[in-house]
Here is the input.
Amino acid sequence: KPSTSSSTTTNPSDGAPSDSDVGVPQKLCRVIMKTVLKYASAHSLDRERELSELLDPVRRHSLKRGNRAALRQILPFYVGYAASLLTLNPLPMLVGLGATQALEATDGSREEESNVRMMKNEGSRM
Here is the structure.
């Protein structure tokens, strides 16, 4: 009877999770990066530069999304701060701060940023 444990298996050669433990996006990224690296090796190109050309648009897009999310997160605080200055009442600023912290807690941009970093690191190890 097969075991149904949820432990992650790792590849003994590099300590990375095995292919059965990662999702489709990770597998697709690995295949694309391996293909780019094979092409770079076959045509005597710089591996780091080719990976950089592949991942720079992703990094730029992720940065833009993160900046937009940061602006949306901080906006309630600044609106509350302006209202506090106009009314001389600190309550709107505190409400804005609470809304800012709530938005920050539910934001996924940090996870997206770490995924982009992971793709770059994984490409360097290939």
